Structure prediction request, 409 residues.
Amino acid sequence: MDTNSWKWFRYDEIFDIKHGFYNKKPEDNPEGDIPFIGATDSNNGVTSHSDLETIAITTKTGDGNNAPMEEKIFENCIAVTNNGSVGYAYFQAKPFTCTHDVNPLYLKGHEINPYIALFLCTLIEKERFRWAYGRKWRPIRMPSSKIKLPATLDGSPNWQYMEDFVKDHIIPQLPKKAQKVWLQKYDTSPLKQEKMKLNTQDWKWLLPSDIFTEISIAPSSDLNSLELDPFGVNYLSRAVVNNGYECKVKRDESKVTRGNFISVVMVGVPSFAFYQKNDVICSQNILVLRYPAINQYNALFLCAILQKDGYRYSYGRTLSKANFLQTKIKLPVTPSGEPDWKFMEDYIKSLPYSKNIEPSKPNEVVDELVEMKKEMIKMRQAMEAQQHKDIHYHIDQYNDNSTTYNIKK
Prediction:
């Protein structure tokens, strides 16, 4: 990719910049169909869900600056965080509402689509280094900020080039399952057609010892001491995305934690829980939970419950094995008072998209991932080389005192 012919554009030249409204999010409604976009770095910006009725009530209370309903709902645009986890960009095809820490961006004079949005989101996030805690990307700065884009001969953004580049060079490199997701060729139907409701009044508080047959701390390994291996086992870190995986490392039987368990992060982002079907090698402070009836369905149900309790473990009260053993967990139970694993499994199976839950077989997509990674490395290196040249020349345009341009590998 040769960026020499690209052109710098002000944000207000190419974007119609809108503003979010909420100082705090509306009341959460898990069954609502309106995502709430917050200043976060994950989950495509979605931090909760709401509904039109709740949003209308919030508008009347003044939290939405008394804005009309139609001005509080956005769609088919890029949502960019200007505070908190600043500089993250997410394409939102469906209607959403958002905090005042998010700016919805609409293209001027051109209709956006997922391909153009992916291209733009990547470039927007490449500029995240400019907006550190000492220099927030507040809305007053955004209009005059600049972004370098492919341009036509008349000096306009070359939207067709951006769309074609993603279609021709990015999407074909994705693993087959990822391509199905991108092209929306996946099954949205549930495994179990009967709809089920949650009635927590009938649930019971249980100690971990009443639920799990094993509660232990996984043997840990420092990533620096391990050898990377695209055909190896997953390295489980304290990440909150990608099922907690950071990379793949060479298998060492003495360091492996056997699969079919729930992993719980104890430090950093406490109580984030993931089901681990396959063997992993763990970083520090990972709690291992096992029970005889475990499978990917009831484990997902239990992971959601465990993560709801994350608020208990702030920096002043780190999650440990000792205090986890004393923490009660509310679960559906059988008439005899045992955890109702069948109900948990059936509930997950009754949800839309549950046909896609079955985990991939080990190494099913490794070959595709390796080839994709090679191509992405080439692209990244080309972009880095060009951006290193550009950054110092345009540094005065951003009033940035930085002299080093580091791109996260």
Summary: The chain has two domains: 7-175+368-398, 200-356. The chain has a mean pLDDT of 83. The longest strand covers residues 228-236. The radius of gyration is 23 Å.
